[in-house]
Each structure stands twice: as structure tokens, then as C-alpha cells.
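Example 3.2
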Amino acid sequence: MRDKGLVDAERRRFNAIALAPSLIVLFVIAGLPAIYLVVTSLTPFQLVNPGSSTDFSSPLRNYRLLPGDPRFVNSLWVQAKLSFWGVLLQVLLGMLLALLLHTQSRVVEFARTLFLIPMVLPPIVVAIIWKLIYTPDISPLYYAASLLNVAMPSLTSSVDFALTAIIIADTWEWMPFTFLMVLAALQTIPEEFSEAALVDGANRLQIFFYITLPFITPILVISGMFRLIDSVKAFPLVFLLTGGGPGSVTEVTNYYAYLLAFDFNEIGYSSSVTIVMLLLVVAVSLGVVWMGRRREAMA
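Structure, written as C-alpha cells:
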């Protein structure tokens, strides 16, 4: 027993030593900037006043200003709409596409590879592609509409369509993520279940709702959670397509934080906006995980 305890202690010591370099690098890359962000959010730091970076006389000043900032509140609402509709469309369309391509065929295998291309492109490249699509003078979309004698507004400069244009571009980029995860889940479902249901007289719709959907629901929740967390990073699309406009129609929270820091030099206030955004993302993520676990417990 004593020898086994010594072996276990040596194993734990080796694991700690092996993990230490990775943890140190992770702390330097992610931990220190996060700590600096929190510390900066407690100051009125402005680039034009370097001494303000160490002014902690009113540490909660920035946070008290946030509820009364209509532009910040509006950015949260815009971000909520972008995240809700973007994630919903990505999950639904990704699931439908996976169901459609869940078959054995050379053409289908080629199509699967083709549908994954948007996800592996750099975000800035995706933004440039959709910038070309949404530019009336050079867009094939507008050219096709002109051939059909259909008048289309400038989508990215229209108050009614600017946010929708970003949602479409974001969905095009990240729908393959859900598609890939759901397709992998579909391939793990035993064929015997569907065959037995067909023998018992079930139709395809009943098989989907009572066999397929329960199997893939955890994957849908996980992919939705990942995309919800990731949806706050639509900065390249907003920056290149609309610049937060027209007005503040597409000004999401991280873009507002960017403007505060680099256009208005309000580094401290921008940091507090970023901290609140991160806390909201964490809260929503924990809520989604909790609902998923509760559903599994009730099943």
C-alpha cells in the first residue's frame, strides 16, 4: 500500500510538472490581459491623460455610468438580436442541411466538403466577400435583381435591412459548424432504430421527432451554446460592412467598446463595457448549460 501511495504521489508530481509550462503560458497570454482589463475598468483612464491609469479614487464610476448610457443599452439590444437570430438560423439550417446530406453518395460527400469552406475562411475574408455582395455597383446579387427588374435598396446602409444583412453573412459563415456537429451525431444513430420504427408503421416525420431529434438534441444545445458565446465576435462583419451604422442600428457591444477606446480615448470606460459584456456571455452560457442538464435529469 505504501509503495502504491508513493507511485501515485510521483505520478501527480509528474503531471503537475508537465502541465506547469502550458499553464504558465496560458496565464501570461490570457490571465494577465484579463487582470489588466479588470484593473483598467476601475479607473477613468484616458490616453490624453496617462496619469488617470492609476486613479482608483472612484473605482465603480464607470460601472455606475453604464445603465444611464443609451448607446451602451442600445448596443446590448443590438447584440441580443444579432445573437438570437444568428444562432437560431445557424442551428436550424445546419440541422436541416445535415439531415439532407446524411446519405452515402460521392456527390453528397463532395457537397459536404464544399459546405465547410465558409467556416475555415478567415473572418476578414468572409467580411470582404459579403462587402462585395452587398455593394450595388459590383454585386452579382444586384445585377441579378436588375435583370428581373427588381429594385433593391442598399442593404448595409438601410435602417431596415442593415442588421439582417449582417445576420445573413454571420449565418453563412458559421452554419457549417452546426452542420458538421449534427452530421457526426446522425452517423452515430443505430440504423436498427429507424428500421424497427418503419416496420411498426411509423412515417419519416415520426421517426425524426421520436428517434432522431432526441439523439441530436444534446448536440444542438452544445453547438448553440458555442455559437452563442462566439456570436459576440462578429466584429469584422460589423466593422467592414456597416461600421456600426446606419446610426447605431448595427452597433454591437464590442464595436461600441472599440469606438470608446480608439475613437474617444476612453480606455477605462471601454474596459468596463467589455467586462460587462464578458459577464453577460458567461451568465448566458451557464444558463444554457443548466437548462441542458436539467432537461437530461428530467428525461
